[in-house]
Amino acid sequence: MSNTPRRRRLDSLAKNWWAVALRGVVILLFGVILLAGPGLVLGVLGLLFGLYALADGALTLVRAFRSSDRGARRWLPLTEGGIGIAAGLAVLLWPGLTATGLLYVIATWAILTGAFEILIAIVMRREIEEGRAMALGGALSMLFGGVLAMVLVTLPATGLPSLARIVGILALVVGLALVAFAIRLRDRRSARV
């Protein structure tokens, strides 16, 4: 029974707990930087987010390609990773990107990746006990993107420095949720060894 497809998927996810933790830590650092220096210039914020989204997307793709899963269990993380890479490249390679444009890219990325995390948690709900934490992380990411998009739509003249606190606080919440999820995965792996 220990070699069932369900057990292999759970073991694979637990084996890569560090990637989830790394994602959470990077989001936490992103939030801290925004809260510590809300007057960051557009280029610095764009560079930070672009590099993060690119790295996060690449890690997600690597996990998906290393997994033995097929069907939705594979294409959902592949799509999520592709979204991260696309967002990172868009920000890094888009000449003349405005502060508002950058924030729209961040909001769209957060909503889409959050939705895919929720879908992954639903598809794998029988395989992972930590599915609730994963779904919560996805919901927080969607909330972050939704609030950011709503603020951009309702207050279009708001500059980047005034939104930095909102983005920073939401990044801290999402980062903490991902780190907590990674710790649960690590503890699960330790208990199995």
Give a description of the structure.
- The protein is globular.
- By secondary structure, the protein is an all-alpha fold.
- It has helices at 5-15, 17-36, 42-66, 72-93, 99-123, 131-154, 160-192.
- The mean pLDDT is 78.
- Helix 2 (17-36) packs antiparallel against helix 3, helix 2 packs antiparallel against helix 7 and helix 5 (99-123) runs antiparallel to helix 6.
Question: What secondary-structure arrangement, pairings included, does this model have?
Answer:
Layout: H1 5-15, H2 17-36, H3 42-66, H4 72-93, H5 99-123, H6 131-154, H7 160-192
Quick summary of this structure?
The chain has 193 residues and is mainly α. The chain contains seven helices and no strands. Helix 2 (17-36) packs antiparallel against helix 7.
Question: Beta-strand level of the residues, as a percent range?
Answer: under 5%
Q: Give the N-terminus to C-terminus distance in angstroms.
A: 16 Å
Rg of Cα set? 17 Å
Q: How many β-strand stretches?
A: 0
- What characteristic shape results from the CA principal axes? globular
Average pLDDT for all residues: 78
Helix tally equals 7
Largest sheet: none
Question: Fraction of residues in helices?
Answer: over 70%
Low-confidence stretches: none
| Structure class | mainly alpha
Helix-strand string: HHHHHHH
Defining traits:
mainly alpha; 193 residues; 0% strand; globular
